[in-house]
Amino acid sequence: MSIAAALPGRAAGNPGIAIGGALTLALLLTAALSLLWTPYSPYAIDVPHRLALPSMRHWFGTDALGRDVVSMLMVGAQNSILVGVIAVSVGLLAGTALGALAAARRGWVEEAAMRLADFTFAFPAILSAIMLTALLGAGIVNSIVAIGIFNVPIFARVTRGSAKAVWQRDFVLAARAAGRAPLGITLVHVLPNILSALIVQATIQFANAILWEAALAYLGLGTQPPQPSWGRMLNDAQAQLFQAPWLALFPGVAIMLAVLGLNLLGDGLRDLYDPRMARR
Amino acid sequence: MGGFLLRRCAGFAATLIAASAIVFLVMEVLPGNAAQVMLGPEAPAETVRALTQKLGLDRPPLARYLGWVEGMARGDLGESYAYATPAGDLVAQSLSLTLPLAALAMALNTALGLALGLYAAQHHNRPGDVAIMGMSQIGIALPTFWLAILLILLFAVELGWFPAGGFPGWGGGLWPGLRALILPAVALAAVQGAILARVTRAAALDVMREDFVRTALAKGLSRGAVLRRHVLRNAMIPIVTVLGLQFSNLLVLTIVVENVFSLPGLGHLILNAIANRDLVVVRDVVMLLAAMVVAVNFLVDLLYAAIDPRLSLRGP
Predict the structure, then answer these.
(1) Residues contacting A45, CB < 8 A, separation 6+
(2) What residue segments make up the domains of chain B, in order of their start?
(3) Which of A119, A134, A211 faces B143 most closely, judged by CB atoms?
């Protein structure tokens, strides 16, 4: 039996993957459904029914402007996924290129690439977002750029670490002896062999991106109203903490479940790809 | 050892210079005329020209950069445009809240993370371990600012044990100030502590498989003594790495948590500065935070050498 065929069987025995996969699937399906249907429009203001308690009409109640909380949460899922996917893709593309270059060239190129990565760590996502917002005004693009930049060194380190190990293998030596150029070896031999490590890291970084996006939106530095976002909803809810404390629960639970799902999935995939870790 | 120290110090200085260059480029060169950004697009040309001169923006960029760095070295951060006071005073005042908050959160985080992680490692795969790992998985998924809001709901709104926000200052003694910082520190520490507990557990489990641990147990040392003297000391490298990252995280997350509790710290200062387009303050606070992050990484590097002297003997 090939390794690929054995994976589903091993996944079934891993509750982390099952729970994480289900939560992640629920997140994606919610966002997809919200493109077609939401109970109400998330932008529809209905002041007479503001701060309604959860009921059959409004399952999670309404906010201070009478907007339906379920509808806002559903559209907010789109927002989190959008920021997460773009920011992680930016980090993945730039970081993997940097890390693969460092592993292939060694010497001063490696030193320079990794110094660049180290140095990016001096600017956590919130600091970059603050600088961008001070210059350009707040907006969703800032959060994507800021989170993307912070993802670059993370992927660069993972790629370099795993790629260096692949470069030591005999089949790479054979390819070099056969006269293949470093770029060809990187594309044909190195990248396919580190793909699993990158997928695991991308899953975890997706979870982190959702957390950062929520924090930036909460601070007013990211997604702007009326576009619904989970972080922004929590900011609004805080203003109503005394009259309508339940409003502060739903968006937080949504963030928590989304992040928990992606983290469990990432950890589970790591165990699956690297069974030595699983025996802990 | 001398060469190691020298290399690390050079790296530290180079990173600081690079970081300051980036902050300067983004905040002062990219926007074209920073005075225009601060005053907004509708400002009359004369006002813009006056502010340009007042801020010295008509000088060449390199001269301005050197002047800025030299001023920072002297502790002079320039003048806040919005408050018309030295930015250094504003920063110093904010730090008197943010630094104790970060330190308190860091202490709670370390105590919580190490205790839970070591307990879990010691009871590997038993109910206590499973419960701690399950809770930490949830803790990692919590947005810090949401936990902060929940803490306000429970301990301030429902129980009334702690204030829901605001800061009385240190003038009225230690306790009133500390009382205002406990909920924010708990919110910060709980999430980071969950991460630290997982790292500590994994690092301790790695060491516990080593022969010298079995030897120590076999010669009759108590489990506690083995844990403290052999396991923890050898598991220190990954733990210190994570602690360094967490301190940077905590500094940045205080910006968010201060906002939840309306605390007048660095986060409050920088968000107000953004709202007022006070670029001088934004630039200086971003630089300060970036410098603190770089300094912590540098200290972690030095700590590695103290924990494991072999590291300083090896080449780069």
Answers:
(1) A65, A66, A67
(2) 2-74, 87-313
(3) A211
Q: Which residues of B touch A122 (CB under 8 A)?
A: 15, 19, 290, 293-294, 297
Looking up tokens 């950069």, which residue turns up? B65
Per-domain boundaries in chain A = 70-254
B271 and chain A in contact, CB less than 8 A: yes
Greater pLDDT, B92 or B173: B92
Q: What is the pLDDT of residues B31-49, one digit of tens each?
A: 767 777 777 777 888 888 8
User: How do residues B217-272 score in pLDDT, each as one tens digit?
Assistant: 889 888 888 888 888 888 888 898 889 889 888 988 999 999 999 999 999 999 99
Min distance B267 CA to chain A CA atoms (Å):
10
Burial class (CB in 10 A: 0-12, 13-18, 19+), B237: middle
Fold classified for A70-254: MetI-like fold (1.10.3720)
List of chain A residues whose C-beta atoms are within 8 Å of the C-beta of residue B286: 127, 130-131
Residue A170, C-beta contacts closer than 8 angstroms, at least 6 positions apart: none
Q: pLDDT means per 10 residues in chain A (280 residues)? A: 58 80 94 88 84 83 86 92 95 94 88 82 84 84 91 92 90 91 91 92 94 93 89 91 88 95 92 63
Decide if A215 and B144 are in contact by the 8 Å CB cutoff. yes
* Distance, CA of A258 to CA of A252 (rounded, Å): 10
Of B23, B252, B274, the CB nearest to A133: B274
Q: Which CATH superfamily is domain B87-313 in?
A: MetI-like (1.10.3720.10)
Q: Minimal CA–CA distance to B117: which of B237, B250, B235?
A: B235
The interface residues of chain B toward chain A in range 128-167, judged by CB-CB distance below 8 A, are 137-138, 140-146, 149-150, 152-153, 157, 164
CA angle centred on B176, ends B170 and B179, rounded to 5°: 115
* Cis peptide upstream of residue A226 (ω within 30 degrees of 0): yes
Residue of A nearest to B285 (CA): A127
What are B34's two structure tokens? 């920073």
Alpha-helical runs (H) found in B40-126: 45-54, 61-74, 87-122
